[in-house]
């Protein structure tokens, strides 16, 4: 296996006797909230694994027993702020580049040559859903809680369990992969739209109903991780050409992947202007002052 000792935020180990199985753990305290260095390291890690011919299966998990990932670290909003007073066109150009780079780092999971099995435990909010949708197979613990929303990492952990700041409430669409990949994963469009529009929390049973996870394992992190590693053993014992061929056929010779890429690019282009909305600043202000946000209506056409 390649050397990953330089990694700080994404831990990579080969925990089994079969060293062709790699465990990738999200490892940014306190609640695996993603800032730019975190998602860039995640992308580079999967690109590096993909080039390693000795690896035959990857399990993606969290080092935190209570949180898989809590979404975006909203204290890391430097790319969204127009610090240099750029005109709208130049700021939009900058934002589009930022979103495309972000998308590419998360898509590294989908690009990975080896099958990627997600073992989800605890809280999985916002960006966690984008990440999960990029995996090949998703197992969930019975204690997992999902939502298309973001949490503030500056909240203490107890606040994280009781106070949620939703993506839909801060003007951030799930443009890093959820809205591009989840529709092809699920067969329940009505439920998917409900979850996207409301950002309400849902559990593992509903995740199975949605088609987002294929198995619910009773217990917590260690239980679902054990089940995912057992599956990885089965896959790793097969010829690598078997899963390489089947993954390619699953993507219908690239047609499905091309549709996802087009959708991601469209969302990046859309958000190059929408991320400049005053609603985002209003939502942050309302959250910090604990007052209801006051959003202006759309203009009449």
Automatic annotation (TrEMBL):
It comes from the Eukaryota. Keywords: Fatty acid metabolism, Isomerase, Lipid metabolism. GO terms for cellular component: mitochondrion. Pathway: Lipid metabolism; fatty acid beta-oxidation. InterPro entries: ClpP/crotonase-like_dom_sf, Ech1-like, Enoyl-CoA_hydra/iso, Enoyl-CoA_hydra_C. GO terms for molecular function: delta(3,5)-delta(2,4)-dienoyl-CoA isomerase activity. One of its GO terms (biological process) is fatty acid beta-oxidation. PANTHER family: DELTA(3,5)-DELTA(2,4)-DIENOYL-COA ISOMERASE, MITOCHONDRIAL, ENOYL-COA HYDRATASE. Belongs to the enoyl-CoA hydratase/isomerase family. This is Delta(3,5)-Delta(2,4)-dienoyl-CoA isomerase, mitochondrial.
């Amino acid at each position: 296996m390649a050397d990953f000792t330089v990694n700080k935020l994404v831990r990579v180990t080969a925990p089994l006797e079969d060293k062709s199985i790699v465990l990738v753990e999200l490892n940014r305290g306190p609640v695996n909230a993603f800032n730019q260095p975190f998602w860039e390291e995640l992308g580079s890690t999967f690109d590096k694994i993909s080039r390693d011919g000795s690896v035959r299966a990857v399990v993606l998990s969290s080092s935190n027993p209570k949180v898989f990932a809590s979404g975006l670290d909203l204290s890391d909003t430097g790319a969204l702020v127009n610090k240099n007073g750029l005109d709208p066109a130049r700021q939009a150009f900058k934002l589009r580049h930022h979103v495309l780079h972000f998308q590419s780092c998360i898509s590294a999971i989908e690009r990975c040559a080896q099958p990627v099995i997600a073992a989800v435990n605890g809280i999985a909010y916002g960006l966690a859903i984008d990440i999960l949708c990029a995996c090949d197979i998703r197992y969930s613990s019975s204690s997992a809680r999902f939502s298309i929303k973001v949490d503030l990492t500056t909240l203490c952990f107890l606040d994280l369990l009781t106070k949620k700041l939703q993506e839909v409430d801060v003007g951030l669409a799930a443009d890093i992969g959820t809205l591009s990949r989840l529709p092809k994963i699920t067969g329940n469009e009505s439920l998917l739209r409900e979850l996207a529009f409301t950002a309400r929390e849902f559990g593992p049973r509903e995740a199975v109903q949605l088609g987002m996870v294929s198995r619910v394992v009773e217990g917590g992190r260690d239980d679902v991780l054990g089940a995912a590693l057992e599956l990885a053993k089965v896959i790793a014992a097969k010829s690598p050409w078997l899963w390489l061929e089947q993954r390619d056929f699953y993507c219908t010779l690239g047609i499905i992947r091309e549709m996802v890429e087009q959708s991601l690019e469209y969302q990046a282009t859309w958000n190059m202007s929408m991320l400049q909305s005053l609603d985002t600043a209003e939502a942050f202000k309302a959250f910090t002052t604990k007052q209801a946000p006051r959003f202006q209506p759309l203009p009449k056409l």
